[in-house]
Amino acid sequence: MEQTNGVILESKPLPDLGAVICKNCGNVMFTLPTNGVKTIYGVCKDNCQPNEGE
Ligand SMILES: [Zn+2]
């Protein structure tokens, strides 16, 4: 009987739990596959202005 070492390799992709959010306007720029929910702040474009109502 053949046995492996009990190692199960799963190439299961991580769910996209990480969100990159623009710290200026609050847009979700893109999501990332991360191990757990993470929020990463960036800037979606140069000179992005905060999206505040007038
Ligand atoms: Zn922005």
Summed up:
This protein has a domain at 12-47. It has strands at residues 18-22, 28-32, 38-42.
Please describe the topology of this protein.
Blueprint: E1 18-22, E2 28-32, E3 38-42
Parallel strand pairs: 1-3
Antiparallel strand pairs: 1-2
Give the total of beta strands.
Answer: 3
Strand content: 25-35%
The biggest beta sheet reads: 3 strands, mixed
Mean pLDDT figure: 86
Which key phrases capture this entry?
single chain; rod-shaped; 3-stranded mixed sheet; 0% helix; 54 residues; mainly beta; binds zinc ion
Structure write-up:
The protein is an all-beta fold and 54 residues long. The protein contains no helices and 3 strands. The model has no long low-confidence stretch (mean pLDDT 86). It has a domain at 12-47. Strand 1 and strand 2 form a beta hairpin. It is rod-shaped and about 70 Å long. It has a 3-stranded mixed sheet, with no helix packed on it. 0% of the residues lie in helices and 28% in strands. It has strands at 18-22, 28-32, 38-42. Bound molecules: zinc ion (ZN). Residues 22, 24-25, 27, 44, 48 line the site of zinc ion.
